[in-house]
Structures are given as C-alpha cells and as structure tokens.
Design a protein that fits this description.
- The chain has helices spanning 2-20, 80-88, and strands at 25-35, 41-49, 54-60, 65-68, 76-77.
- By secondary structure, it is an alpha+beta fold.
- It has a five-stranded antiparallel beta sheet.
- The mean pLDDT is 85.
Length: 89
Amino acid sequence: MKKLSQVAMATALFTLSLGAAAAKPTSITFESEGTNPEGKAYALYSVKCSNGETQPLTAWDNRKTWCVGKLSNEGCSKKQIRAAKDACK
C-alpha cells in the first residue's frame, strides 16, 4: 500500500512538472501592417517563446482580436497575452 502511494505521488509530481516546463512568451514584436484581399486591415507580430521558437500572431479589428498564425482567423482571443501563450504551447 505504501509503495502504491509513493508511485501515485511520483506520477502526480511528474505531471505537474511537465506543465511547468511549457514554453511561455518572452517578447512580442511588431512586424508589419497590411490588408487582406477582402480589404480587412491586419497587423503582424512575432512572439518569442522561452523554448527559443518564434511564432506569428495576427491582430485584426484594430488590434481587438488576436489570432495565432500568420493571417489566421483561428485560435483567436481578445487579449494579446492569451494569444501569445497559445502560440507558445
């Protein structure tokens, strides 16, 4: 019974440590502005993540909607930091 408790505790700690090791945004940099073929304005940003990767973000609606990806309308959020965290996952 004691051995089972130790294994369960070790598994729980390992699972928690995986969540803590997830990449987090370290900086967000403006890249450019433009309009898509439908005439909708956008702004492109790049997010640098703690794991060394760089991911694109697209801001729509005068920077009211933030989406993960270049010229993307998917994975969107109303907050820049939320979209940046999603991009670094």
